[in-house]
């Protein structure tokens, strides 16, 4: 039976007491070290090599390892591959694997597992096929060495590799990887091992005593399933859980408790982006699109909808990707929020204010469960009213959003929270390159521009960062001229909030901690 409210909170506390032998959740002196983090829904899978969602990622990364990791600052670090080297012509990559590594069931991890993953598992992952297209062969030259022969360069090769979690050949060989039972009870090499899952209740992991990267500091990790925002907030305040995602709308409650710290690091940058349907009237006119974008006050959205958790976007790339940012693109300068100038531009585009006080009306859609985009939509409605543009707001489920925005093109404006991912080619360029097949989570505008596509393609064809940066700057310049998709703010609003009363080391990531992961090796109980 699913528990809610105080009943669920009591269940969490009782569970923690049974697990740790102490009078509450988290860690305690002389007791089993228990870490408790709320998740929002039942996992449909626990294998991020096969499925994708925040819950899948959160659980999977605790049990599985990639060959290389990538930090939230985009730094590649060793994982199952302890060393690697490129040939001078960038046509061969040699991976030297860590020795003495075992899967959670005791079987050895070897180069045969790596070859199997390249051949059978990675083709199923979202980002891997483009990387695999430049690989001619994968060979295990001994138990701990894998050699990749390439037919060309692929810009985000290492970044894409960092998103591939290794699965055991002896568990997956000869099966359908998408339906293998191990997807719900992973056998990995990671710091934590699967213990049990109770639908609607919790997922529990236990310490891997033989983790190859070092001593894991957590004996058990408990993930109570708490879909309700209020329940998570109250449980965090009460000290029943150690970490949870708390919406921006409830951060004022968090601010009253100094032991609660909202994380600002440890995750790839996220953005609230505005998408425009350039096929529908009147947004088929670039001058109208520019005027609509200029009318949206990004500072106010950051301050109100996001409760100050972030910064207004000044360009298409976040500042942390400084090597790729086009400094000549400046939203404040190029799209000034001058109401008189915006009104004049809309008049000049042939859309005068009618008798009803509006020039035209736009359908604005967003995912209703994302409170930050919902609040931003309300603000945008008021802002566009100031220049005579009517707005119909429609909050929909994630599934309907995907269908209406990407498949049916049934929208005028759409608001979305998204991540820049491990590399601009993976997380940003997709919103600007041509999408004639209307694939989900890709450019829904209907615009196909040869300059943008050529620049994005150029960034894919070289691993030289300076050259890639130049291509991305060209892409940004042309995207500004066409203005059909743009971030409104870079935000950490959906980053988790931690209770520091029971664990040290949860707030900031270690240098070799992957984006979204926690410091399993260095977090310590508060004594």
TrEMBL record:
Its domain of life reads Bacteria
* Domain (Solute-binding protein family): residue spans on this chain: 77-432
Keyword annotations of the record: Signal
**Record protein name field:** ABC transporter substrate-binding protein
Q: Which InterPro entries match?
A: Peptide/Ni-bd, SBP_5, SBP_5_dom
Q: Which Pfam families match?
A: SBP_bac_5
Query: So which residues are the signal peptide here?
Result: 1-23
């Amino acid at each position: 039976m699913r528990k809610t409210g105080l009943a669920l909170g009591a269940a969490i506390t009782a569970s923690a007491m049974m697990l740790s032998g102490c009078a509450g959740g988290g860690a305690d002196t002389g007791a089993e070290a228990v870490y408790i983090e709320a998740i929002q829904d039942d996992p449909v899978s626990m294998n991020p090599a096969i499925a994708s969602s925040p819950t899948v990622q959160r659980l999977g990364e605790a049990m599985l390892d990639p060959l290389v990791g990538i930090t939230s600052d985009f730094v590649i670090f060793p994982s199952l591959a302890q060393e690697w080297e490129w040939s001078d012509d960038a046509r061969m990559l040699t991976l030297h694997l860590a020795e003495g590594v075992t899967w959670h069931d005791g079987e050895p991890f070897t180069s045969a597992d790596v070859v199997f993953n390249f051949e059978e598992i990675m083709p199923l992952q979202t980002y891997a096929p483009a990387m695999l297209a430049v690989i001619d062969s994968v060979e295990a030259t001994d138990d701990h060495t894998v050699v990749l022969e390439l037919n060309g360069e692929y810009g985000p090769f290492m970044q894409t590799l960092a998103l591939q979690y290794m699965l055991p050949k002896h568990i997956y060989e000869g099966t359908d990887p998408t339906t293998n039972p191990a997807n719900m009870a992973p056998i990995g090499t990671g710091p934590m091992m699967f213990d049990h899952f109770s639908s609607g209740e919790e997922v529990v992991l236990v310490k891997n005593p033989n983790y190859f990267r070092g001593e894991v500091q957590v004996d058990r990790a408990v993930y109570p399933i708490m879909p309700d925002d209020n329940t998570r907030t109250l449980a965090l305040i009460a000290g029943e859980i150690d970490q949870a995602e708390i919406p921006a709308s409830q951060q004022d409650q968090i601010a009253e408790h100094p032991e609660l710290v909202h994380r600002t690091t440890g995750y790839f940058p996220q953005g609230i982006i505005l998408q425009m349907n350039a096929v529908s009237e009147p947004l088929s006119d670039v001058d109208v699109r520019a005027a609509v974008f200029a009318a949206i006050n990004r500072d106010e959205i950051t301050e109100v909808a996001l409760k100050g958790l972030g910064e207004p976007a000044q360009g298409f790339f976040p500042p942390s990707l400084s090597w790729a940012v086009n400094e000549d693109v400046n939203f404040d300068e190029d799209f000034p929020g001058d109401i008189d100038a915006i009104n004049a531009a809309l008049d000049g585009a042939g859309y005068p204010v009618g008798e009803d006080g509006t020039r035209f009306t736009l359908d604005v859609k967003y995912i209703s469960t994302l409170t930050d985009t919902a609040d931003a939509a309300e603000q945008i409605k008021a802002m566009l009213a100031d220049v005579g543009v009517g707005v119909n707001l429609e909050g929909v489920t994630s599934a309907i959003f995907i269908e209406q925005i990407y498949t049916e093109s049934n929208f005028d404006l759409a608001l979305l929270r998204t991540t820049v991912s491990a590399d601009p080619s993976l997380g940003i360029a997709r919103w600007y390159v041509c999408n004639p097949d209307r694939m989900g989570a890709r450019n829904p505008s209907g615009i196909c521009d040869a300059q943008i596509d050529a620049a994005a393609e150029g960034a894919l064809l070289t691993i030289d960062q300076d050259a890639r940066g130049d291509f991305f700057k060209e892409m940004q310049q042309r995207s500004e001229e066409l203005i059909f998709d743009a971030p409104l703010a870079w935000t950490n609003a959906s980053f988790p909030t931690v209770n520091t009363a029971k664990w040290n080391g949860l707030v900031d990531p270690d240098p070799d901690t992957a984006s979204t992961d926690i410091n399993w090796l260095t977090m310590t109980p508060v004594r």
